[in-house]
Amino acid sequence: MTITAVLADDQAMVRAGFAALLNAQQDIEVLGQAEDGQEAVTLCAKLHPDVVLLDVRMPELNGLQAAEKIIAANYGTKVLMLTTFDIDDYVYEALALGASGFLLKDALADELVSAVRVVAAGEALLAPSVTKRLIENFSRSRPRTAVHTARLNGLTEREREVLTLVGRGLSNQEIAAELFIAEQTVKTHVSKLFTKLDLRDRVQAVVLAYDTGLVEPA
User: Fold this and answer.
1) Rounded to an integer, what distance in angstroms lies between the CA atom of residue 183 and that of residue 177?
2) Looking at the DSSP assignment, which residues form a beta bridge with residue 55?
3) CATH of 144-211, one of 1.10.287.130, 3.40.50.300, 1.10.10.10, 3.40.1190.20
4) Per-residue pLDDT reduced to its tens digit, 11-62
5) Taking a C-beta distance cutoff of 8 angstroms, is the pair 48, 16 a contact?
6) What's the per-residue H, E or C state across 131-160?
7) Scanning 38, 66, 195, 213, which has the fewest C-beta atoms within 10 Å of its C-beta?
């Protein structure tokens, strides 16, 4: 199955380079390119790509504003943020909105291709480790509220344990080993967590784990 993508960056050379790289893959097709956030929103509404790659800083609408509109429209398009900086408050907010991850624009070619495939498959891009560091940094400045912690009231004790370990960045296999349970059982707990807490993916689960104090910044 071919993965469809839209690229949004205000630098023409960056767009062209990324498009050439992705189109060279047998399983990826770039359907369109946008030079600003508003054009990215328009293209996604028209083309419904599997993945949209959004530069954080663009004219008209920035990457955060574009991500919010695309995610809210619920086309099924996964959002992958691109940034020049390894710490950026826009990116944290995008992750909290439901973006599936972010990647530095100086990433290696195979990292970019892998990121598109991972996000298209419905997984959260939590690597490189800078994503976790970014979430930690900005969770420190976000007030912990009763609204956040109240979201955990409907969870079982085991589900809280699983959410805590997801927040620490552990995979299902690692969680299974930590809790001495089957990996399939972990998958069941994670699925129930997502349903109860209305989470899109593991990135949002990590954000919630920090916001509620289940995981504390290092």
Assistant:
1) 8
2) 82
3) 1.10.10.10
4) 999 899 999 999 999 999 999 999 999 999 999 999 999 999 999 888 888 8
5) no
6) HHHHHHHHHHHCCCCHHHHHCCCCCCHHHH
7) 195
